[in-house]
Structures are given as structure tokens and as C-alpha cells.
Amino acid sequence: MSWRALHPGELDHEKIWLTVGLGACVLGGAWLAWDLPRPECNFRLLTGWPCPTCGTTRAVVALTRGDVLSALQWNPLVTTGFAVSAAYLLYAAVVVLGRLPRWRPPALDPPWPLTLRIGAAALLLGNWAYLFWARI
Amino acid sequence: MKWFYEAAPGQQQGPVTDGELNDLVAAGRITQTTLVWQDGMAEWQPLREVRPDPMPLAEEALPGPGKVRCSLTGEVIPESEAVFIQGKPYSAEAKLTVLQTIQQRGVLPKRTHERHGPPWEQRATLGVVAAAWLTIKGVLLQPRQTFTDLKRTGGIGAPLLFSILLGTLAMIVSQLYSLAGNAAADELSFDRDPVLTLIWDLTIGEHMSWRGILLWIALSPIIVVVTDFIYSGVTHLALIFLGAARQPFEATFRTNCYASGSTGALAFIPFAGDWLAIPYFLIAMCIGIASVHEISTQKAAVAVLVPTLAICGCGIGGALLFAATSQSSFAKAVIDVAAQ
Q1: What ipTM describes this predicted complex?
Q2: Is A53 part of the contact surface with chain B (CB cutoff 8 Å)?
Q3: Cβ neighbours of residue B260 under 8 Å, at least 6 residues apart?
């Protein structure tokens, strides 16, 4: 793990993703507050099967009510993704506002890159299988 | 001081001197993102972090296994077809020029291929409208050439501005066309057929109110910014997943902004614009990502299309059905008018 100051001209990922995250929160908040039309899953409409992100809207609505368990039931991977994103935004806010050194992940030696790819694919497929099983 | 570098994942080579390291960059065998190490360093680090001094072709991608980059034109060619002159690879087409230059001047010619584009980034000299028009025309009509010329660095401000301006304009125009279509249908007491009604209700619900439309337009710039970053992030993650991310996120983001902004301009085509913009955007992204990361178009297509279908399938499907519905209802209204 390495912490370092930004190099001159280097892209400030923390500032960018903090802004994007806040923008997404504004959009999501406006969407829910004004009760705008919610997206329908056309994949489900056409095939009858859930898509890998089915349940996201319902998970978001559950999260806004503080009902984490229901959110996890609607889509465990997306809900976990939201939790990880929230943690990253918190970190980004702290380092941007505090002008602190940034975390940059170290380069991974084999076999870790392949292991991580297989792990990520397994997570995606596992989550999708759950959506079928739970009839989301 | 001797350097070691990672020629391919897990393949460490060296030692090489500073000068040899420069030659490797110039030949396109390593890039500024290649991991390097020398005595005294705690861990392997990207070249740009330990040697931030500008070097020729600093932004070029690794040509790939068995391939080299022509030192004159920048073209990536199979190593077996390269002609090596003074240790530098050249394509067969460049050989004559190189030999003539050596004969006339006694030195190797300077590289001719540099990425300069797109025209939008020269708007200070071209003018905003001309620069935007040339960029749109380039992406829509000559995508490979345009993205081959696209600078991979240069910041995210200019491409983001391009995307925000054209994306917001596209959303406003699209809403105006939709309003016109709905108004025409209402004026004629137009009843949609059951299938269209179902599609309409399932995708956008009832006609959007004025308040909804104004809100949508007001939020458009934020929508464009958020979707640009998220879509670029997802695409870049897919590239990393495929082991095809040969350039940093900045390059993927720049490609996405110019592709989305330019294809968004298709929204000016009444009612058919949305139909065209989405597939055109995906095609432009596949070509752009392949050109910018210097990977095969097939690999770029997987990186662009799989997450799009898997994650954004709902949104894109909805947009297509929205386009289909507004176009069909308007077309039917026009036919009814003609029949009267």
C-alpha cells in the first residue's frame, strides 16, 4: 500500500469521483423526491429473466429508508458496491479537504491479477445466479 | 544507474541504462505506465513516477507482443516485418525515407506521427463552432482516423466541456422534438395502438409534464457529467479486466467524451436521431478505444459492449424504446394527417 502526494499535472481521482458521487446523489435524490418515472428492465421484459443489475432501484429505495437488509436482498452485489463507494467517497472527502497524501494501489505480481479477474467474474455470476434463485 | 522493467505482466527484463530506457520508450517497447525498478527503490513503480521528465513518445502504448512501433510513422507493425536501422524499428514503407535522410543529413529522421487531435482542442485558433463541427464530422465520418490522432493526455476539461455542451443541447433538442410529436398526436386526438401504449407506459410512462421537461433540461449537464464519468469508469474497468488497459483512465475518458458528444449531435435529426445516436456511439467507442489503447477492435468491442449490455442494458433499451415510441407515434400522426 502506498500513500503519496499528487504529482504535478496528475489526475486528481479523489476530487473527480467525489464530485461525480455528489452529482449522482443529487440526481438520485431529485429522481426520488420528484417521483420521476423509474427505469424498467427491458432485459426482463424481453426475456423474462432478471438482468445482472435488476433490483438496483428497489435496493436504492430501501437504502434511503435505512433498510440495509432489504437492500441486500434486492441485489447483494449492487448494495455492497454502494457501501464500498460510500467508503471511498468518505476517504476522498477526507483527503481532498485535508489536502492529505493519496492512496495508490500497488502493482500486483502474478498470479494476483488473474486471481482477481476470476474472483470478480465469479462474484458477478454468483450475484446474477442469486437474482434468478430469489426471483428478483 | 541500471533499470529493470516489466516487459509483460510478470516478465522482468534488464538491466538497462537511462539511455537504453529512452530508446525502449522511443521504440514503443515500454510506456510511461510500465513498471520499473532500480536499486534503492522499495517497490516497482510506473516509469512516469520515477522519471517524470518528458521523454519522446511518452504517451504511446505498448505495441503488444511480437509487434513494434515504427520509429518514423508511429505505426504498429509485426516485429518480423520491421526493418531495424541503427537499432530502431521502421516499417518497410518508411525505410526509403530513413535511408534517404541518413544519406542526405547523416542522422535518423525525426518521427512524423504525433497525436494532435481533435480539432476541439485547437478551438482557440479555429473558433468554437468550427472546432466543434470538425470534431463531430471527424468522429462521425472518419472515426478511426480521428481517434488515431486523438491525444491521450491533455486533461479532462476540454473533452468534458465538449460533451457537456453537445450532450445538453442534444437533450434539449430531443425533448423539443418529443414535445412536438406528442402535441401533434394530442391535436389529432391520436390514440396509440395497444402495443405502442404498452411500450410507452413501460418505458417513460405518461407524457412528461412541462415541469418534468424543465427539470430534465436543468439537470442535463449534471446527467451528462455523471454518465460520462461512470460510463468511462465502467469501460476502463472492463479494459483492466481484459488486460487491455494500455493507457490510463484519462485516455478512456477523453475517448468517451468525444464519442458521446459527437454522436449526441445526431439528436438534431428529427425523431430518428435517438435511433442513430446510440448504435453510432457504441461503434465510435469500439473504434476509439481500439485506436487509443492500441488494442484489437474485437477486444475493444468486448470492453465496450459487455458492460453496456450487462449493466446499462436497461437504460439503453429504455432509450431505444423511447425513441421508437416517439418516432412511431409521430409518424402515425403524420400519416393520419395525410389521410384526412
Answers
A1: 0.88
A2: yes
A3: B163, B167, B224, B228, B231, B281
